[in-house]
Each structure stands twice: as C-alpha cells, then as structure tokens.
Amino acid sequence: MKRQNFYYFNPETLTFEKKEFSIKDVVKRVAWFLATAFAFSVIIIWISFYLIDSPKEVMLRQENEELKKELKELDKRVNQLAIVTKDIQERDDKIYRSVFESDPIPMGERYPFLAGNKTYESIHSSDVVKMLNDVSHKADQLTVELAVQSHSFDTIADFVSKKSDMLRSIPAIRPLSNIYEITSGFGRRYHPILKILRPHTGIDIAAKKGTPVYATADGVVSAKQPGGGYGQVIVINHGYSYQTLYAHLSKKAVKPGEKVVRGQIIGYVGNTGISMGSHLHYEVIKGGTRVNPVHYFFNDITPQEYDAILKSSQKVNQALS
C-alpha cells in the first residue's frame, strides 16, 4: 500500500510543504490519543458512579431516609418512656418507700453499668450507626431500670400486706374537710409580727371559728403542750415515728392519753395564741423532723385537688401564725 503523504502550510514561504513523520512523532501522536481517550473514559466513569445514581442506589437512599425517620421516632418514644420511668422512680424513692420507712434503692442498683452494649458498625452510614447506638443504649438502660422498679414494687406490696397497722398511722387525710387551698405553706414565709422571712414549720388553713378539726391518722393524744404561741394545741402520737400537731384551736374535743382514729373530730378551729385570724396551723413530724404536710394528702383527695393545694402552698406569702 502506498504511504500517504502529509502536507502543511508554511506561512513564511506561503506554500504547502511536505511533512515528514518520524517514528518518534508517531509514537507521540498515538500516546496523546490514548491519554485523551483514557482521561475521557475516567470522566465518563466518574460521572456515572458519583453524579448519576443507579435505580438501586436511589432505592437504597430512600430506604435509608425512611430508616432515619423511623429511628428518630423510636428515639422520641424511648425518651418519653425514660421520663415516665424517672417519675415512677422518684415517686418510689420519695413517697412510697418513705411511707413504708424503707431506704431508697441504691443508685448502683438502680443505674448499673451496662457492659457490652450492642453496636451496629456493619451499617456504613455514620448517622444511622450513631442513632442506633443511642437508641440501643437507652433501651438497654430502660430495661434494667424497669426490672429494678418492678422488683421494688413487689417489695412495697409485701410491706402493704404486713403493715396495715402502720398504714392507719400515717397522717394521710386533710385535717379540715373539703379544703382546696392552703393560706400559707411549708417553708420560709413572712412572720405575721416581725414581717421577715422565717421558717414556717407547718401549713396554715384559714377557716371559720368552730370548724371541726379531724385527726389525720390513728394515734394517742399526747400530754405535750408546746409553747411558741400555738395557743390551744393538740399533739397526737401515731407511732412509727409520726406525730401531728394542730394549733390555735378554739376548743379541744379529746384529752391526753385518749386513743383517736383517723377522721375523728379532735377539736375546732380558733384564733388562740399568736394568730392573725381564725385558722388551723397543722404540722406533720416524721422522726423528729417537721416535713411538708401537703405531701401526705393522698387518701381523700383527687389529683386535681392535690395539684390546686400544692400550687397554693408554694406561694411565699405571710403566715397567719
């Protein structure tokens, strides 16, 4: 086959001149062509793999997004369960076990260290892995906490079966019938005479003179007559380290040494002692320490009534005595 000649235009001579190609020139041209083809192929492949999703990749991405949404919803539900569990635990420690004179569950038992938590490192999306680990840890923690709480309630149920007498000795009702508001609550309140903040060791309940006052638990009327401006006062020993005090009475209906039962009339509201108006000053004493009586209103009251009483008792105002 006859070799084909190549010509190029020479601008200096203004003529076409024959181009002679060496082996080196041919190699360069072939190499340039191959390099260009390779670069073009790389660009095409990169665009195909990284900019244009295949149908399978589109489906996997959609599934991944749905999985993230479900994980977020699951995490929200687990958080809500954690809040409910925390509330149950606080009630158990601060109310139920306090009522039955049982020590709270130790923190080490209630929140044990969870070794060997499950991980999901085989899933390649870092966000999903983190969410799965968080939800898994929370779920494991809740499982242990609820198991401990279930055992605690079994213990309390055993207390109930063995301590019916003790239950009658807990000051669990309101000292005045149908009260829905506390005039002055437990804690630091303004003294009616000195007008400065001082500890208020009970609650004041405004009522008309002569309103019946009821024993809040079974017990024996004490001969103790505390001073401090209480006026006519009754102290009842209930046993199990409980005492209650009823002050500023206009009249007593029981005598020292007399046994009383919960709900029995023991006296009548008055304005005796250091008092700024007709009212009952009521205290609950547990183990020699005065505690908030409102926390013991749980035997004759609805949740709505308790909430109203609790809110009114939290106001920092002037005490009546």
Describe the structure using short key phrases.
321 residues, 41% helix, 9-stranded antiparallel sheet, alpha+beta, two-stranded antiparallel ribbon, rod-shaped
- Biggest β-sheet: count, sense, barrel? 9 strands, antiparallel
Helicity range of the residues? Answer: 40-55%
Could you say which overall geometry the principal axes of the C-alpha atoms support? rod-shaped
β-strand number: 13
Query: What is the H/E order?
Result: EEHHHHHEEEEEEEEEEEH
| Number of self-contained structural domains | 3
User: Which quaternary structure do these chains form?
Assistant: single chain
CATH fold-level name of the largest domain: Glucose Permease (Domain IIA)
Number of helices: 6
Strand content: 15-25%
Radius of gyration: 42 Å
List the SSEs and their pairings.
Layout (H helix, E strand, L loop, with lengths): L5 E5 L4 E5 L3 H29 L3 H45 L7 H4 L15 H37 L1 H5 L18 E4 L6 E4 L2 E4 L5 E3 L4 E3 L10 E8 L2 E11 L6 E2 L4 E5 L9 E8 L2 E3 L11 H11 L8
Antiparallel strand pairs: 1-2, 3-4, 5-12, 6-11, 7-8, 7-10, 8-9, 9-11, 9-12, 12-13
Helix pairs in contact: 2-4
